[in-house]
Amino acid sequence: MAGGRLLPSTSGSRQPSMAGLDGGGAPPAACDPNNLPAAIVLVFPVMVVALLCWRAARTRRNKDECRRLAQRVALLRDLRQLMAPAPPLAKAAAVSAEVRAVLAGQVDAWVKEAESVVLGCTSSRWPCRFVRCDRHGEQLSVVRMNLDEAYDRILPVVAQIDTAHRLHHLLQLQVYVLLHIY
């Protein structure tokens, strides 16, 4: 139905003409930019507002998550400072010191990465956080996964090493007491 013209047919039904499509007439009404459907005109601003609201909510969630991660990073940093290698008294202590050094290096890397992401998320002004909310969200997700791994895998090993050192120390005290009594 281009251009609104119909051609007569032999079967009695009317068929649309091709006038207007081959340059012989006016362009069809659907191509006119001033004739946009009202739904598009109404939907576009609603979509823009929805996108802005979503980004603002994501920015707020990132800020809250950043605060929670900052607390976890501080705890991990404090734990790292307590992971000083024990003085090597025996071969078992030397192995333990090597394990502590490897674990401490991994914890240091995670703490450094987490602190840089937290600092980047908290030091930026609100408009920058708003624009970069997707990237900050991805970075916070990676840091959260690393910290979860640290808490799930590394901390039990550190606790086990610490318990072994305490038991070794108690055993040495018992031997010392027994040697001095007898």
Give an account of the 3D structure:
By secondary structure, the chain is mainly α. Helix content is 73%, strand content 2%. The protein has four helices and two strands. The chain has helices at residues 38-82, 91-123, 126-131, 133-181, and strands spanning 6-7, 15-16. It has a two-stranded antiparallel sheet with strand order 1-2.
The computed structural class is: mainly alpha
- Strand ordering within the main sheet: 1-2
- Count of strand segments: 2
- Through-space gap between termini: 114 Å
Element order: H for helix, E for strand:
EEHHHH
**pLDDT below 50 for ≥5 consecutive residues: which ranges?**
18-22
Q: Classify the beta-strand content into a percent band.
A: under 5%
Q: Radius of gyration in whole Å, from Cα?
A: 35 Å
Rounded mean pLDDT score: 75
Gross morphology is rod-shaped
The proportion of residues forming helix, as a percent range, comes to over 70%
What is the count of DSSP helices, taking H or I runs of 4+ residues?
Answer: 4
